[in-house]
Amino acid sequence: MSKIRTGYRMKAFVLSGVLLVISTILFIYPMDGPTEPRIFGPDKIVHYLLFFAMVLPALSVKPMIWVWLVPLAICYGILIELIQPYFGRGRDVADMVANALGALSAIPVARWLNRRFIELR
Predict the structure, then answer these.
(1) Is there a contact between 101 and 50 (Cβ–Cβ < 8 Å)?
(2) Which residues, at least 6 apart from 98, have a Cβ–Cβ distance to it below 8 Å?
(3) Averaged pLDDT for residues 6-10
(4) pLDDT per residue over 54-73, tens digit each?
(5) What are the pLDDT digits (tens) for 25-55?
(6) What's the rounded Cα separation, in Å, for the pair 31 and 84?
(7) Residue 85, number of CB atoms within 10 A of its CB
């Protein structure tokens, strides 16, 4: 199997970075609606999907970085929830869990993508 070209890696890391910036804006943007925490709701799906999408590109081209990238993403998810009250939003432990689950569930998908599509190039 051939090595992944540097261009693919760079694009994947840039995409992960762009998604990090977008998610940060979305998570600190003040909301007009209620800010009380809910255990289940559509916002949990958004949290899950954003964290999944944020780490997936980088993990897909370099799966072994999950050792530091996923814990970093989980810490970011906790931190963003802790600072949300300063931006007119609510702090929610269930959002922290959804963030962590999104980052963690990207690991096996990224490994599969890497083996199936990326390493074969």
Answers:
(1) no
(2) 44, 45, 47, 48, 51
(3) 81
(4) 999 999 999 899 999 999 99
(5) 988 887 765 555 566 677 899 999 999 999 9
(6) 10
(7) 11
